[in-house]
Amino acid sequence: MRAERLADCIRKKLGRVSGLHSLILYGSLVRGDFVPGTSDVDFFAVLDDGADPESVLREIKPILEECSSFLNPVEVDIAWEWLSNLRDPLNLGYPYKFLTIYQRDFRENHVVVIGEDVVGMIPEYPLDELLPGRLEGILRNLERFSENRKMLHILAGETARLMAFLNGSTLAKDDVLRTLQELGDEGALQIYLAYLDGRRTEFSGEFLRDFITSRVEELKKKRNSPL
């Protein structure tokens, strides 16, 4: 299994790192739908309270990238958080998607590379508590990256995935694609297909901005509409 091969490589090459409480591999590689040249390799570094994140990341990043190279990822992504903030990442730390709205996937698809399995520390949040912040976060990033076509493609892809998730999909790529096909949203489907095909950046900024804004507003209206 590729995830275990990667974890074994890191364990062999990475000695004790001061301040690193746990290192967890998660995401598509563990889930089983990693696509070379399209997917990232995702790590979560849990730091002892008060540890210097720059020092820890500087020490572990070269080894994580070296051990991940056989996978040909787009990026080796390393998120980090202090241990005590995991008691309430929504309010105490940074509300990463994998710790909040996509937490179930993180719980079910992770490998502890080093240290303690901290997943049991993380509280479960009701979706209604998480969704408003996630939607507003997308709109804030849209404003921030409005002229950055690469980031607009990423935000549009995340919007399409969120649409599928809120309609019963898991985060597995085939499941997201199938759900978008069932929804019949041609824009969302084309954006997600471009992502699956090597993260093609073929859409105009205007199209992407309109897509993100309109779909987020639709999701807001559905959330606020009476049953």
UniProtKB/TrEMBL annotation:
Listed InterPro entries: NT_sf, Polymerase_NTP_transf_dom
Polymerase nucleotidyl transferase domain span: 12-79
CDD domains named among the record's database cross-references: NT_KNTase_like
UniProt keyword Protein biosynthesis, yes or no: no
Alphabetized GO MF terms: nucleotidyltransferase activity
Protein name from the UniProt record: Nucleotidyltransferase domain-containing protein
Stored Pfam families: NTP_transf_2
The entry's keywords: Transferase
